[in-house]
Structure prediction request, 227 residues.
Amino acid sequence: KAGVTQTPRYLIKTRGQQVTLSCSPISGHRSVSWYQQTPGQGLQFLFEYFSETQRNKGNFPGRFSGRQFSNSRSEMNVSTLELGDSALYLCASSLETGTYGYTFGSGTRLTVV
Amino acid sequence: ELKVEQNPLFLSMQEGKNYTIYCNYSTTSDRLYWYRQDPGKSLESLFVLLSNGAVKQEGRLMASLDTKARLSTLHITAAVHDLSATYFCAASNAGGTSYGKLTFGQGTILTVHP
Prediction:
């Protein structure tokens, strides 16, 4: 079966711009969560959506936002990009409570210049 | 706030040797996950541990969970070069709607030498 699909794979943006990343979960998975991975801070949780509602939120500024559509696809938006936002952004999908684990996508590598 | 700590952070092993990676977490959690990450790649799920005393094995890797000690271990048996990667453990808060938020350890960079 198809895995978790993230687009685009790579992005280069300029400081101050905004960016939208997309994540299509495994069919039947209703939970989509987002993580930021950097060499300095490691893997940090951004937010999780379940049935179009944000169910959990991490400690990131309001510039980071997301949403989930009725088909469970999710988007993450970062406004007013800063150099420190350069990172690998990973999304993961799961059935309702993660009993069978979380499957991660290949990630979007964002570089802010 | 849930915190997850792994040790060691760096592990250099000889092929054929055994070793253990430890994952401690700070508050109640009944779900523990292990992932592998190769350079430049995403996270590959290795094990899902859902209850106290859970033990799972796949090839040369075995993971266990002790919820009373708040400790999970990933044991590597007779290491081979192909196991070289970064290994992460992650935990989620027990109960309610917190399952969807994983807190990751720092990762253990494993290098297996001939």
